[in-house]
Amino acid sequence: MTSHETISATTAASIKPEAYTQPFLTFISENPTVFHAVDYFSKQLSSRGFTKLSERDLWTDKLEKGGKYFYDRNGSGLIAFTIGSEYKSGNGVAIIASHIDALTAKLKPISAKSTKAGYVQLGVAPYAGGLNQTWIDRDLGIGGRVLLRDDKSGKISTKLVKLDWPIARIPSLAPHFGIPAEGQANKETRMVPIVGLDNTDIGEKKPIQEEGRASVMGGAGTFVSTQPARLVKAIAGEMGIQNYSSIVNWELEIFDTQAAQLGGLDKEFIFAGRIDDKLCSFSAIEALLVSSSELSSATGGGSSDDSSIIRMVGLFDDEEVGSLLRQGAHSNFLPSTIERISEAFTGDKCGANLLSKTYANSFLISADVTHAVHPNYMDVYLEDHSPRLNVGLTVAADSNAHMTTDGVSTAILQRIAEKSSSLLQVFQIRNDSRSGGTVGPMLSAMTGIRAIDAGLPQLSMHSIRATTGSLDPGLGVKLFAGFFDHFEEVDAEFI
Fold first, then answer.
1. Whole-number mean pLDDT of the chain?
2. Percent of the chain surpassing pLDDT 90
3. Burial of 478 by CB count in 10 Å (0-12 exposed, 13-18 middle, 19+ buried)?
4. pLDDT, tens only, 338-355
5. 51 beta partners
6. Is the pLDDT assigned to residue 296 strictly greater than 70?
């Protein structure tokens, strides 16, 4: 077996966290956009026997007990699940939900900008807190998805593209210039990436953007006529496109090209971009793969083949901007999935009564990264609520209901941690600080599912480059796999 197959044939308690370090480094480095991440997970699931579903089809004749399935929405959100061979409608769903989007900067609909002093620039807009000061002087690539029309059939398909060499850069202003170089720069006027040079205005030659625009750019009125000519050429060259006008549209973003790396004297850190929250997303999917393996047989759990519940992972887009779109957690994405599964095994008998029973028997881990304690800012943390790296999952609590965590859900997860040989930490923000949010409260409120917020700790949240522990991806897999293996028996302990 390959090393990855060896990992999957393991019980939760015996998982070696270090086995997931390199796979995570590879994943985070090679999949910079949300579209690439969903595509990566889809391929992982398919290679391990999961069947891809389509929302456009009826599922009633496609789902079977003991089956493994997944589907995506918009190419930027994904739900995967296994159905136990002993499953009956009304039984619970063990769910891990995370978000797969990350702070970034997206190309504007018309990204071509006028050349300034010989600099070719790119029109971008911040997504959530992207384009903050940490984006300055970084080597930035461009990637995302491109919509292409086939010249013969006229059909439009979507393909991914990644220009992963340093194309763009947002240069800082030297401190010698005084006040303009200080503080957060204006994101519209000061945080505009440079992508090339065009000094043709000095001589008699026409500017590059004007030469042959009608032929090179596909003609007036086409999508590519509104984009920088040299970027269109680069995208087309990378994708092997001859007819530029076949590019109907695209959704592209800029990203830090520096690969994820191990750091520290003993390589105990991971330095990487987009940790929030491709970290918990990675651990959740890997845990489902472990749990779905026929060789997984932890006490009280076992493989999906002898389970009476559904095991599910939901990876949602748009969490960083409110989760309000159809691929976000505040949509019908998760509830409709559970409803369609229930209907497949009950037919006309599936109604509000049965669905309410299903939700009441279910449990949700809202898995979002949380703040690791910072050695230089100990004063902003509560002394007994200061998570460390390479220790374990952190339960996030909040007195004002920004998190789903309560006494019952904490007790359930603690029992699962004990059975999985895992440690739990706890974090709560100080009374004089502002708490963040997660997908947990909205999912729990929509369905009535019991829930807890628990994620892996990291430093430098919302920086273009963050830090987590080298064992943390694997520690997440260990606890999440334990949740899938042990939820049924632990749930039975609570009246």
1. 91
2. 84
3. buried
4. 999 999 998 667 788 999
5. 69
6. no
> Which helix (H) or strand (E) element contains residue 5?
helix 3-8
pTM: 0.93
Q: Is 69 exposed, middle or buried (0-12, 13-18, 19+ CB in 10 A)?
A: buried
For residue 373, the 8-state DSSP code is P
∠ CA 327-76-315, rounded to 5°: 70
Token match 């929405």: residue? 73
**Per residue, what are the HEC states of 304-323?**
HHHCCCEEEEEEECCHHHCC
Beta strands in 151-299 (DSSP E): 156-168, 194-197, 247-256, 261-263, 269-272
Cα 246 off chain centre by: 30
Give the DSSP letter string of 384-428: T----TTT-EEEE--TTSSS---HHHHHHHHHHHHHTT--EEEE-
pLDDT band at 298, cuts 50/70/90? very low
CA distance 43 to 46: 5
CA dist 201 to 93, 198, 229, Å? 64, 8, 17
The pairing of beta strand 310-316 with beta strand 363-366: unpaired
Question: Residue 219: which pLDDT band, with cuts at 50, 70 and 90?
Answer: low
- Tally of CA atoms within 13 A in the half-sphere of 382 that contains its CB: 14
Mean pLDDT computed over 415-434: 94
pLDDT higher than 70, residue 135: yes
- Spatial strand order of the sheet with 269-272 comes to 261-263, 269-272, 466-469
| Tokens of residue 349, six digits | 């008998």
Q: How much is the average pLDDT of 401-406?
A: 93
258-286 burial, b if ≥16 CB within 10 A, otherwise e?
Answer: bebeeeeeeeebbbbbbbbbbbbbbbbbb
pLDDT at res. 2: 41
Q: How confident is residue 304, by pLDDT bands cut at 50, 70 and 90?
A: very low
Collect all residues with Cβ–Cβ distance below 8 Å to 73 and sequence separation of at least 6: 55, 79, 326, 327, 333
Distances (CA, A) of 380 to 133, 363, 383, 458: 21, 32, 9, 15
Whether the per-residue pLDDT at 357 is higher than 80: the answer is yes
Do 307 and 84 touch, CB atoms closer than 8 A? yes
Specify which residues 104 forms β-bridges with: 127
Q: Encoding tokens for residue 38?
A: 């969903």
Q: Tell me, letter by letter, the H, E, C secondary structure of 217-250.
A: CCCCCCHHHHCCHHHHHHHHHHHCCCCHHHEEEE
For 349-371, give the DSSP string: G-SHHHHHHHHHT-EEEE---EE
Question: Count of H helices and E strands in the chain?
Answer: 11, 20
Tally the residues of the chain.
495
